[in-house]
Automatic annotation (TrEMBL):
Gene3D superfamilies on file: 1.10.287.1490, Kinesin motor domain
All copies of domain Kinesin motor, residue ranges: 487-807
Species of the source: Galdieria partita
Keyword Nucleotide-binding: no
Protein name: Kinesin motor domain-containing protein
Pfam families: Microtub_bd (PF16796)
Amino acid sequence: MANRRVNALTKSKIPKPTLVTRNRTAISREHDNIQREKPLKEISNEEILQNKETNLETTSKNSSVPTWKTVKPNIACRASQDKDNPLRKVRERLERQESKIEQVELTTKSYEQQQLQYQQQMDSLMKNIKNIKDRISETERTIENLEDELFLATNELETIQQNKKEQERQLDELKVEKSVVQGQIQLEEAKIQSVHSRIEEQKVILNNIYEEQLSLQKQIQLKKSETQDELYNVEELTTKEGNLQKEIAKLKKQKDEYLMLLSEQECEREKIIQELDKLEADCRKQQKEIHETEDRKSAIEKEIADLQFQEESYPQRKQHLEKEVDQLRKEISAVEETINDCRVKLSLKENEYKTKEDALETLRNSSERTLFTEKKNLSSIQSQLDEAKERNEQLQQAIKKKDRDAEYFDSSVEQQHTLLVSLRNKLSTLELRLEEERNVHLIEQQKLCTLQERTHRQQTIIDEMKEQRLKNGTIHDDLQRKVYEMRPNMQVFCKLDDCESVEEPTVDSLQKLILERQNSEVLARKVRDSEELSSCIFPFDQVFDTNISNSQIFRHCIAFVDQLWKERNVCIFGYSTHTHQRKMFFDMNAGLSFLTLLHLLESINENSGSRLVLVVEFFRVWKQELEDMFSSSTTDANGTVQSENRQDDTNKENALTAIEISNEMQLQDSIVSRLDFQKVQSQLGHYVFRIRVKDKSLHSSNTQSSITYVHLQMPDMYNSETLQTNETDENFFSFLQLLTQLANREKSVFSRSSTCILTNKKFECLNDNPKLLSILQVPKTTRNIQNTLQLLNLGQKLSCCEVVQGKSTGHR
């Protein structure tokens, strides 16, 4: 457009050129364009297109000129040099306009940057507004929570008032009861006074009767004196005697009547005394009840005083709480008003922000329009730029005001936060006070709950006792069933210990114990001289199935053995190996060999001053029938071998012999020779010996203590299978500790078996309290107990098992 205006001005000033001048102008223009390529490059693309259009128009106009008509270039240059001055002015104007356009573009860029900054500030302000709204919602929530807590506190106060009313009712009831009791006491006192008055009246009557008797006796004495004076007058005396006899008969009758009355009065008096005693006892009981009621009354009065004090303090507390609640409500209302004001301010500011955003959008549209018009009209651009600067300044001032308002709002929010913190602290103090009151109330409730808990505990204890009885019955039935199932696979080895007997043993004191099966239980019958004396139940205490593991069995064994060590009787049984090694096993699978016995002899001789002697008793036991077990013997103090149980020649092998051993050679010779003889004679027999310690100076049987070893020879069996028990007395516990120490020193002998306790039960038989124990050790290599029992040939029925028992010598 500018080029067209320039062309129009030049046309109006310059005369119409000829064809030569036209060619010259075109050439000059091209030359000038060539010289001024650099400034033309800075012009915008639109201007270049406009210049191209103008050049095309001029070329289209000049296209009518024929090509054969040419002018020399020197002439054209001169004409162009003459006309350079107006073109330079136009160029300068164009350059000025271009610089202005560049300035406008820079201002528009800065304006866009400012708009971006304004948008960022608006976003930050919106975020701050959201945060403020969140804080306001949090404050509202806290206010709601405080209102809920206040409601709960009021409810608790109402409950406290109700409890107080209930306590007042209870006090009224107690007062009524007190008045009733006082009326009863007054009635009983009136009855007692009436009884006392009756007693006094009867006492007065008795005194009068006694005085009349004394007066009668005086009259009789006077009459007797008169009769003595008048003996001389016989006639008078005879007449008087008749009269006197009549009077005496009357007096006797009166005396009998008086005596009857006295007896009746005495009976009544005794009855009255009994009634008085009863009344006194009742009075004492009533006095006790009165004292108890007075104590209760005093306690209740104390509680009433406490409650009255609390009642007096409750309204004050309630007034303080109400005042604080009112203050809190006022503060909350003030906070709500400030929050509402803030909300109003926020709404106003949001409206302002919206209007300003609309203004900014209108400014954007107007700026685009102004830019489009500035490209057309450069003159109007400067005025619009000034207006834009003024508007920018106004916007900056508005933004500063908004920043100030935001800072003020933040400060107000901080103040509200501090107020909320103070309110929370006050509420915490109120909560603490309420908790203290709750604790007081809970203490009163706990006093009531303790009585209920005691009754509940007693009921639970009774229920537990009933459940335990039922469980014990079921366990007993289960054990009996298991025994009945396992009976074909068990062999019972038992020993009855008559602990109460003190008599010396004799040959005739042997008794036989027969075990029989009857209904799912095992019966023990004690027979003497082929006569049945009594029978008793012989149950098992612990029975293991075939599925149980050896480790579990061993744990049970440890528990039983510990109990037996603490009590009086424990026995040790042992199998010999198929190599006939003479081994015994003692307490927790530790070996006990002949070396330990020798150490035992040495320690006894050193510690006791040669007062104690080891007594070893031997006897023979066959496989199917255990005979002559554990019968005690009488021994010499000189170390000689004495035989007891002298029987027929057929039973000489089974006779019990006792040897006192005081040195090492006696022990080796006696035990080894006996075992060798047993081994040579039969491998199916069992060999039993008992070691006991005897005091030479004391001959009573109560002082003897013993440890019993049963050595059962089982050929072709495992090396370390044992059937073992141990027996001792409480007074002999140190001796057993010594044995355990000596057994632990024997490192060459170890047992590879686990222990299974079958029975450990006290049962009564002929007023005795014996104890039964049977321990079976199973090798760890075997997985099933039943297989080992079959290998050991112990699968005999209980009805075939017989044990012969002799009376012991007191406590062992």
